[in-house]
Design a protein that fits this description.
about 700 residues, TIM Barrel, two-stranded antiparallel ribbon, about 5% strand, EC 2.5.1.54, aromatic amino acid biosynthesis, 3-deoxy-7-phosphoheptulonate synthase, ARM-type_fold, DAHP_synth_1
Amino acid sequence: MIGRNEAVTTKSTIENLKIADSSAIIDVRIEGIRPLIPPSCLLEEILLSSKMLQTVTLGRQGAANTLRRTDDRLIVVVGPCSIHDVEAAVDYAKRLADLQNELDDDLLIIMRVYFEKPRTTVGWNGLINNPDLNGTYNINKVLRVARDLLARIKMQIPTGCEFLDTMSPQFISDMELAVNAVVAARHLHCFLSVSTQGLAFIVNTAGKDYCHTILRGGSTGPNYEQEHINKVCDLMRKAKLTENVMVDCSHGNSRKNHANQPLVAEDVGCQIATGDARIIGVMLESNLQEGYQKLVPGQPLEYGKSVTDACMGWDTTVDVLNNLAASVFENDEKIALRVSSRMLHRTSKFLITGISQVKLDLCRNLCIYSERVPMMNDAEHAHFILRLLEECMSNDLNRRTQAEAQLSIIVSTIMSGNHMHQNELILQTLLQTVSPVTDSQAASLTVPPNLRIITCIWVKNLVLKYWKSPEFVSDRWKTQVFRNALLQMAIQETNQVVALHSSVIVAFISRCDFPTRWGMEELFQPLVNCLQMPQGLFQDLDILIEKQYRAIDIILRITKELVSRRLMAHRKHFGAFAMDLLPFLSNHWDVIMNSSVDGSIVRSVLKLTNISTKLIAVILTNAFRVLATQDFELVNAILQKMCHFIARFQAQFSSGQDQKAMEIQAGKCMYQMSKLLMKTQASYPMECRQHLQEFLQLYWEI
């Protein structure tokens, strides 16, 4: 029998167990709920073609190779701040794809395709959330539009997307580039998401192997300069991360001003050109039209203009990308990778499109072969290697396969080397192939450019690996002959890639042999001779200027190598040479100013101006204490002549198809001069300050 108190308690418990009507407290701020299309339906509706799959695979592979440092191209993520007009985006992609085909050797271009915008304040929050730009939020519609747009773009060029939640990727993730904007996903992660069937799942990730840091500026200002790169790389090194840095040229680095993006890209390009291989990519905000426009209800939008952040226009974008490509080409740290990585990059295209793996095996063998040059017994082996290299570039598959098989055998039998002195036979043969010594030989030999480039790579690897060995060349006289031959090849070579490799070789040998085994007169006199210009009228001014450019470039490389040894004795040697060098620089600028320089060689002269300014900066930095007052006055006179030439160029060549490119080159010259002034202004002797002030006034007028 249940007591009175127990009965009351039981009744209360039953009342508490009754299910209450919760409609008054659930979804009280929700106006409507619509079903979301399952990702699997969309994946079936808009399928990937083989062309799209190839584009995605090549893009991911190229980015991964760049982060692994096996591809020397620079990653460039460029495109609109956000996508709001599908047709304009496709138009932009077609133009970008054409540009990618031109710059493919130096840049891996990825189109920025952002469908969502992070918002901490009110404003348009992206195509996926508000496709019609009117607050209707037809998300199912735009998921189709987004995937269809990516499909159309992926027929042209790789894309990069930013995902602000864990659900959007399920609809378009098979088109996402492997390199994401956020690289914290190196380690394992767990989060909530949906499957392709639209069911809620707990997702565990394995992490990403290829990570990089993006610098986009912050509350303290821009962070794209050399000191910022060094700082972030120090932090990455301490964290045991690969020093891969990408610079965002927009946002904080541009101080929210789209017109500053080319300036940021120019600075980053200079860092890349001077050898900083840690910068693996840049990001740019660009559109068909410059600036941005506001969303005004009822008013039509301008075609190809951003509705969020202001962007660069298309013409500016082309100039910036061309300059970045030139910076990558000039990077000496990356030049050693150029042939092997180019071949690997192009081979991957053949491999994916169904052609056999033969070329990939060839590239691997060449990479191994160039790093570990096998020892030869006689000169015929060197000739045999040249024939193999030539056959490996044949269009005939059978010939190419046989050559590759023979090369594989050679690679597999690499020896540690008990006959290193016989390398001189290989070196002599390869040098004659790269650059024939006499005009008669040049007339009789027609060596394909690709073979000359690969051969030059071999010469450089031989020298860099074995030159310090006392048995590399058996005779001191032959050593001198090889040094002089390499120097002449670097000065006279017409192929730009071969000339760059040759300059690196000469600079390295100077570091090893100067001044005891390779004296001042032997090393620098041929370079100084190139700077001498005859007075009066003369023909082939463009050829002469190109030789001067190459000579100054070699002097720069040699100086950097010598300074890196931190030996004051060598700095004194260079100081003595610098005092002799300045009059030649002044003389050749007198001749240029008095010559009738036409539009066909203005760009070459501007290029010469740029590198001359760099040389003067090196002279003032490393020979400052041994220069006299008259030397500083001569420096100021040279700088003034350069400025007058640029002013004359601007007045004389105000139009023409090359005008834009020449203006960019002139801007580079002025940029180098401004850097020189900032570095040396405080160090000038008091008696030279007046000359510096005169130059500063002229500089700012231009």
